[in-house]
Specification:
By secondary structure, the chain is an all-alpha fold. It has eleven helices and two strands; from the N terminus they run αααβαααβααααα. It has a two-stranded parallel ribbon with strand order 1-2. It is globular and about 80 Å long. 24% of the residues are buried. GO terms for molecular function: proton motive force dependent protein transmembrane transporter activity. It comes from Myroides profundi. Belongs to the TatC family. It holds the Pfam family TatC.
Amino acid sequence: MSFLDHLEELRWLLVRSSAFILGGGAVAFIFSDFIFDKIIFAPKRSDFVTYQFFCKIAQRFDFDRSFCLQDLPFEIQNRTMDGQFSVLIWTCISAGFIIAVPFILWEIWKFISPALYTKEKKYAKLFIVVSSLLFFMGVVFGYYVITPLSINFLANLQVSDIVKNQIDINSYIGLVKTTSIACGLVFELPIIIYFLSVLDLVTPQFLRDYRKYAIVLILIIAAVITPPDVVSQIIVSIPLLILYEVSIYISLFVHKKNKKIEASKTKQID
């Protein structure tokens, strides 16, 4: 296809993906009461499962007990006339995006598949399943681990007793949505490394050489978003380190496969 034909395909990819997101948003709108009461605002309550889990660990090993609170010291407020309406619409769209991820990945696969080998095109279902699973795992990790750690840390941080935390609803929901979706995208790292390796833009040696920098960056991120105790930082760091190591092996697999293909082509020419 010509360059303009590719642009046309990309345009329809975006159109169909947007339609899937709006469809998922419509479903989320129907269940909006459940989404807000049972999901969005659940980390605001002290009986949230993550707080209970960390509280039990803190009591058992005598660590920081900031999770063992009766109530988080902040209130959520709406400060604009259309604030709650705006929050409702954008939250449904964000939920629609999460719901539509498998369909969006299918559209992306159809767009990039012409650039792949015939054997690789057979892995469409595997690509959709693995990519969707990694994304949903990331969303769950972000929601149940990163989000409550961040909320607990920021809610208990005070520069002075004079200052009271009255958080705007957009700020609170923005943290929950951004953290969950961002973690879902970060968990796609092995898939991204796979395609970068197929295109020879990333090599396993490159990932090994920069491993120490990646580890330092992951530890810094974990230290920033968690309370000042080692257990919380380790819990956040381990999945990210595992993903990085898995990405190295994926790149190594692709690199060896590319070498075999090049070797077979060379033999055919000879």
